[in-house]
Design goal:
Elements: H1 3-9, H2 15-41, H3 44-71, H4 82-108, H5 115-139, H6 142-147, H7 153-186, H8 192-224
Helix pairs in contact: 2-3, 2-4, 2-5, 3-4, 4-8, 5-7, 5-8, 7-8
Length: 225
């Protein structure tokens, strides 16, 4: 009998809500694409709509997290520990939280992205969201990993996915350096407070990619157990 089915004999399997949680976390991060597009078009109404969607996704992720924590048994009849799953859940949660923080700060300040930075910002946001998407794809392999007992071809697939996640995170780091340098060149022409918050937003977008990468790191730890 597959391990996931055996686990269900001893209580609800946590894998489905873990995957649902990551899906909502990624949906929150993906909302930043439309959010920044609206900001750069000067459409604050559309930006506010996108920000509310991001916040709703983060709230739903919190609901899933809370329910999973309440119902996760102290011991699992699985080749993973309760503490490992909770660490994975925390890493996923940081993706949703960071996306919400980015949108909340930017909409709260009615932030404008300077024209010389807009193309780079679009690429940077797309890169961070791509990292989150890759983390979701990796998490969606959990069922198959459990079925295989964390062995064989499924492990190889998951390892390749996490290696691709490494590459995406490094790409995001490089883009962060480039956009910070571009902002430095024009910062003297901008209000100092706006510059300070632009640097913060850039840092947080970089953090979003880092948080998504951390999900892959937690999955790698599960594979190494």
């Amino acid at each position: 009998m597959p391990l996931t089915n055996i686990a269900n004999l001893f209580g609800r399997s946590p894998i489905k809500p873990i995957k649902e949680h990551m899906a909502k976390a990624h949906e929150a991060s993906a909302g930043l694409v439309d959010f920044f597009a609206a900001l750069m078009e000067g459409d604050l109404s559309a930006a506010e709509t996108a920000q509310k969607h991001i916040s709703a996704c983060e709230n739903r992720a919190d609901d899933i997290k809370r329910d999973l924590r309440l119902h996760l048994p102290d011991s699992l009849f699985m080749p993973v520990s309760r503490s490992d799953l909770l660490e994975l859940l925390h890493a996923q949660d940081e993706v949703a939280n960071t996306a919400q923080d980015i949108a909340g700060l930017a909409i709260g300040r009615k932030m404008q992205i300077p024209a010389p930075l807009q193309a780079m910002m679009t690429t940077f946001v797309d890169s961070a969201v791509a990292t989150s998407a890759q983390a979701l794809r990796a998490i969606n392999e959990l069922d198959e990993l459990l079925e295989s007992g964390f062995a064989g071809r499924e492990v190889d697939i998951a390892q390749r996915m996490t290696e691709e996640l490494d590459e995406l995170e490094r790409k995001s780091d490089k883009l962060e350096v480039e956009i910070r340098a571009a902002l430095f060149k024009i910062e003297k022409d901008l209000p100092p407070v706006d510059v300070m918050f632009l640097y913060r937003i850039i840092e947080w977008i970089g953090d979003l990619a880092d948080r998504a990468h951390s999900v892959g790191n937690r999955l790698q730890l599960l594979l190494a157990r």
